[in-house]
TrEMBL record:
Domain of life, per lineage: Bacteria
Keywords, ordered alphabetically: FAD, Flavoprotein, Monooxygenase, NADP, Oxidoreductase
GO molecular function, one term: NADP binding
Protein name from the UniProt record: Flavin-binding monooxygenase
Cofactor: FAD
Protein family membership: Belongs to the FAD-binding monooxygenase family.
Lineage, top ranks: Bacteria, Bacillati, Actinomycetota, Actinomycetes, Micromonosporales
């Protein structure tokens, strides 16, 4: 039976980053990246819908160790995928990735001080078993095999095509057709302007408005810094600038929500045609950053609305008809194509059942330690990024801390590391304090977080720099043996 020091699950942006940090900091460690799909890149290889792009700038969404050299800070999926695969090649990670390897179970034995991991080969159907000292779960937070679609009455009666963005068909031709996109999140506001160029008309049908802000595709300050200081120093300075900028915007919105609402509304009104009902379609009932703000590069969504190629309808769906969507207001939206940009199905750690000494781990009974381990689960780390900033900012810090932890254990001769909550009466709350629908639907299936460090799941980069980079890896609630 093959044994590894570390098994990394997932060859997306987190898994590739984890492998590079591990190889650089602990070159003697043996590791493999198990990827269920046939290609690396995770989200950026899976999604193929029109216009798919980042909604964070690549100077912070990119890795700290690899400068983003493109002039555009908001990049499309193909360029992000190229960046990720360059990282794989430059760090000789290709030989460590095992494609078509889907983890189906993981069990920890305290007697052997190791994990036994059951893997299914998707290409052959073969089942294999691997063992490892550590599992690093970088499989993301949603199901790759299916997106979330509510039940719509009359769905089967619709004569056109119904498409979910997570499973975009390569043969979909929407040229000159009427398109209805159901949803108002990041995916919907990306798809609408991207389809508007070829479709006869695209309607974004939303139940509730979302905060939407235009951002420039290019960052002139970043490009100037890279020009005058070189790609590496310029990139480092740009990251600092953008980290501070993200923090300042988020803090302002949380501290002064009424003022933030007014500013966002003012910006939206300037981008929209005269007389447009801004409050009906762009004035959410919640405060900014109760859910993530949606960014539209160079205001492309607003431009499509101004040019009459796209429109917004705020209403509830009564049901589908043969020719479109019937709304509760009585209105009917004609459609040849309906896109259900209705979200994701959250799935922690790839949905893999995990057992410790024969007992199944129920995630809702665990508490997150430093946002990277689970109480009572030995030698298991995971990567979950920020919801209020660039995802990868936190991933880099977690990977650094993980490598420091392994180095400490090697120096001290430890084999096992297990977080345990010292106070069983410690109050807990949801792992992610976030109002998005896909999080609310799954909150009962996720770990909890505590009311104090190290059991808080921080969403603040500067706090995490101190906790994960500067502070010691040891803690009285982290037990070694």
């Amino acid at each position: 039976m093959e044994h590894m020091d570390v098994l990394i699950v997932g060859a997306g942006i987190s898994g590739i980053g984890a492998a590079r940090y591990l190889k650089t900091a602990l070159p003697a460690k043996t590791f493999a990246i198990l990827e269920a799909r046939a290609a690396s890149g995770g989200t950026w290889d899976l999604f193929r819908y029109p216009g798919i792009r980042s909604d964070s700038d690549l100077h912070t969404f990119g890795y700290e160790f690899k400068p983003w050299r493109d002039e555009e800070a908001i990049a499309d999926a193909p360029r992000i995928l190229d960046y990720l695969r360059e990282t794989v090649t430059e760090n000789d990670l290709d030989r460590h990735i095992r494609y078509h390897h889907r983890v189906v179970a993981a069990s920890w034995s305290s007697g052997d001080a190791r994990w036994t991991v059951e893997v299914e080969r998707a290409d052959t159907g073969e089942r294999i078993t691997l063992t490892c000292d550590w599992i690093f779960s970088a499989s993301g937070y949603y199901r790759y095999d299916e997106g979330f679609t509510p039940s719509f009455a009359g769905r089967d009666s619709f004569a056109g095509r119904i498409v979910h963005p997570q499973h975009w068909p390569a043969d979909l031709d929407y040229t000159g057709k009427q398109v209805v996109v159901i949803g108002s999140g990041a995916t919907a506001v990306t798809i609408v302007p991207a389809m508007a160029g070829e479709a006869a008309h695209v309607t974004m049908l939303q139940r509730t408005p979302t905060y939407i802000m235009p951002v420039s595709k290019k960052d002139p300050v970043a490009n100037a810094l890279k020009k005058y200081f070189g790609p590496e120093r310029g990139y480092a300075w740009t990251r600092r600038k953008n980290i501070a900028q993200q923090k300042a915007i988020w803090s302002f919105c949380r501290r002064f929500p009424k003022a933030a609402r007014k500013i966002i509304r003012w910006v939206n009104a300037r981008q929209l045609p005269a007389g447009f009902p801004v409050d009906e379609h762009f004035h959410p009932p919640y405060d900014p950053w109760d859910q993530r703000l949606c960014a539209v590069p160079d205001g492309d969504l607003f431009r499509a609305i101004r040019h009459g190629k796209a429109s917004v309808v705020t209403d509830r769906i009564a049901g589908f008809t043969e020719t479109g969507v019937r709304l509760e207001s009585g209105r009917h939206l004609d459609a040849d194509v309906i896109v259900t940009a209705t979200g994701l199905n959250v799935q922690a750690f790839g949905g893999v059942p995990v057992t410790v000494d024969g007992t199944l781990v129920r995630l809702a009974d665990t508490v997150a330690y430093k946002g990277m381990m689970l109480s009572g689960v030995p030698n298991f780390a995971y990567a979950i990024g920020y919801t209020n900033s660039s995802w990868t900012l936190k991933i880099g810090l977690l990977c650094e801390h993980f490598c420091r932890l392994l180095k400490h254990m090697d120096l001290q001769g430890y084999e096992v590391c297990r977080p345990e909550v010292a106070d069983p009466a410690m109050p807990t709350r949801p792992f992610l304090d976030f109002g998005a629908g896909y999080i609310r639907r799954a909150v009962g299936q996720l770990p909890r977080q505590g009311d104090r460090m190290p059991w808080l799941t921080s969403m603040d980069y500067q706090s995490d720099v101190k906790l994960l980079r500067a502070d010691d890896v040891t803690d009285r609630e982290l037990h070694f043996s």
